[in-house]
Amino acid sequence: EQDDLALLESGEEEVEAPAPAGLPVLAVVGRPNVGKSTLVNRILGRREAVVQDVPGVTRDRVTYPAEWAGRNFTLVDTGGWEVDVAGIDARVAEQAEVAVRMADAVLFVVDATVGPTDTDERVVKLLRRSGKPVVLAANKVDSPMQESDAATLWALGLGEPYAVSALHGRGSGEVLDAAMKVLPEVSQVADAMPRGGPRRVALVGRPNVGKSSLLNSLAGAERVVVHETAGTTRDPVDELIELGGTPWWFVDTAGIRRRVHQTSGADFYASLRTQAALEKAEVAVVLVDASAPMTEQDTRVIQQVIDAGRALVVAYNKWDLMDEDRRPFLEREIEMDLVQIQWAPRVNLSAKTGWHTNRLVRALETSLASWDTRIPTGKLNAFLGELTAAHPHPVRGGKQSRILFATQVSNRPPRFVLFATGFIEAGYRRFVENRLRESFGFTGTPIEISVRVRE
Ligand code: GDP
Ligand code: GDP
């Protein structure tokens, strides 16, 4: 116990965050079919069978935790995005732009057997403009005889083309080593999120739920603030909108205003855009269409917000389409749909008529306050002491794990570490989470609980 107390008193700095934010981000970009997915699978150590040869398959993830040569980083995979051949050029550039914005470095994949194309040139321009470090992978160099194919890619002006065969693994170590050299230790992108100044909101949701309508309604109803607010660097894709007397940044609004047409890749693009917006936001408003049943895509967006560790508000839009008779049933339906996120504030509104849109501010403020919350260690342990005395961890195999103490290692979102004498079951961890929420609120923020076992 002596030991535990010493650790407890040594303060929060001694404890490493369980899921450190700020891992550097590497984005893999390039035209369709150059082998991005194959390369990503190789980096992640997935079996080749995972590569989808079926066009238009929707991936539900965009970012993956990855490791190379002992370095942890986040990999942005744009490989699942299949597009129709028409307009391919603009789409590839658009996709690359979103991916590059959220990345610290870029792995640009080109098909060496084809050589540089106009689309490749266009992406190169964009990469240059971004100022981010780029490593060029000349893919499909399956044998030494094809090395000369790779050499033609010097013409792109991105420096040395690394000859790779994503399919066979040839050269993939070298290109990754090169990527690790240019990847910073800590993400500059995540750190670029300004502290202080107006708070940053992302409007997210599947296509057609009413994001652009809501944005227009909010921007129109209230005075749009034009002056530069001190201490903020303005990204042209963000808009400053005054709500309830306070300015708010609505991030990545360009992606909302520039509507993406329905193509086979639109789902994936939407999910990539959501991810990019979440990186920059502190709180997300997930729009759901109240006039239609909830879909898997809605659930996926909500999960993306939780995984990104952002504060959450759920907005049921198109309430004006609601039939009075349906209302009682709908309430119950919504409760069931949202059972996993009962902790999130919900606003019913209509972007079209403006009804209840003014209620968003209160919900945003509530969620952000929870997201910012820090519970003093003493208070947290007093709570846990009472809780574990009344409801001890179940005995398993004659042993009983005990939680010795806990500390909140960070906020935004709140993260906790429980120090225990043995394994803590997932069910018990959920129980602790629920009780934490009952006692301390946390309305509208995901919270993370991890366990350290002390022998
Ligand atoms: P993406 O659209 O850029 O993600 O490309 P994929 O990874 O789906 O690959 C497109 C096609 O190229 C698939 O049929 C892959 O098997 C093939 N491919 C990928 N890498 C290589 C490679 O290094 N050599 C050869 N010969 N084929 C490859
Ligand atoms: P986004 O793809 O999420 O940006 O969705 P949009 O804002 O473009 O809206 C998709 C469609 O839903 C458009 O036809 C809108 O006019 C309509 N819409 C959006 N909000 C509402 C609403 O509150 N009520 C009704 N009746 N229609 C809406």
In short:
By secondary structure, the protein is an alpha/beta fold.
Relevant terms:
alpha/beta, globular, GTP-bd, 17 strands, single chain, ribosome biogenesis, binds guanosine-5'-diphosphate, GTPase Der
What does this structure look like?
This protein is α/β, with parallel strands linked by helices and 455 residues long. The protein is 35% helix and 20% strand. The strands form four sheets. It has a six-stranded mixed sheet with strand order 2-3-1-4-5-6, with helices on both faces. Helix 3 runs parallel beside helix 4 and helix 3 runs parallel beside helix 10. It starts with a helix and ends with a strand. The chain binds guanosine-5'-diphosphate (GDP) (2 copies). The site of one guanosine-5'-diphosphate has 17 residues, from helix 2.
How many helices?
Answer: 15
Shape: globular
Distance, first to last CA = 12 Å
Strand order of the largest sheet: 2-3-1-4-5-6
Which ligands, by name, code or SMILES, are bound?
Answer: guanosine-5'-diphosphate
Number of strands: 17
Helical fraction: 25-40%
How is the biggest beta sheet arranged? 6 strands, mixed
Strand content: 15-25%
Protein topology:
Layout: H1 2-9, E1 25-29, H2 36-44, E2 63-68, E3 71-77, H3 88-101, E4 105-111, H4 118-130, E5 134-139, H5 147-151, E6 161-163, H6 172-182, H7 188-191, E7 199-204, H8 211-221, E8 239-243, E9 246-250, H9 253-257, H10 266-280, E10 283-289, H11 296-307, E11 311-317, H12 327-337, E12 346-348, H13 360-372, H14 377-390, E13 395-396, E14 399-400, E15 403-410, E16 415-420, H15 426-440, E17 448-453
Parallel strand pairs: 1-3, 1-4, 4-5, 5-6, 7-9, 7-10, 10-11, 11-12, 16-17
Antiparallel strand pairs: 2-3, 8-9, 13-14, 15-16
Bound molecules: guanosine-5'-diphosphate (2 copies).
Organism: Georgenia yuyongxinii
Keywords: GTP-binding, Nucleotide-binding, Repeat, Ribosome biogenesis
Subunit structure: Associates with the 50S ribosomal subunit.
